[in-house]
Predict the 3D structure of the following.
Amino acid sequence: MRRAVLLALALVAGSAGAQVPGPYTETQAAEGAVLFLENCARCHGLRLQGDFGPPLVGPPFDVHWRGGRVMELFGFIRTNMPADFPGTLNPWDYVAILAFILKSNGVPSGPEPLAPGIPRALLIPDR
Ligand code: HEC
């Protein structure tokens, strides 16, 4: 009896602590890495460490974007980047690049791809 209660508690605790699946797929992030090299790395560096443009990982990213809405980061990128040719990529390519940036900042991937109509409620999680 006691064992059954403990087992039930363990199951409840397990489901409460279950990881929420990440908002993009590994495939998207891999595509995004290539697109980033082609379109963004010349200013933000091969490892997103920053160069002419600011770093897109580490403390600057945390200060500007972490805890905020994924759709806001997406909107910024889509409207303003690449700084020399803003708005010139197709929406799915922007989404793939976004997936790569999220992955580079430790946001986990999941089974469902991210689509250009990003839900308002989706936040960039704290570390
Ligand atoms: C010609 C250089 C250049 C290219 C190419 C470029 N950027 Fe930028 N980027 C900048 C500069 C300069 C800033 C800072 C000015 C600003 O925030 O408006 C910036 C800012 C950003 C920021 C905001 C960073 C922060 O934390 O404030 C993001 C995100 C970003 N770029 C993503 C991208 C992505 C994704 C690409 C490729 C699609 C890209 N950039 C291509 C120059 C560039």
Remarks:
- The chain has a mean pLDDT of 90.
- The two ends are 39 Å apart (CA to CA).
- Residues 39-40, 42-44, 52-54, 56, 60-61, 64, 76-77, 80-84, 97 surround heme C (CB under 6 Å).
- The CA atoms of residues 32 and 97 lie 4 Å apart.
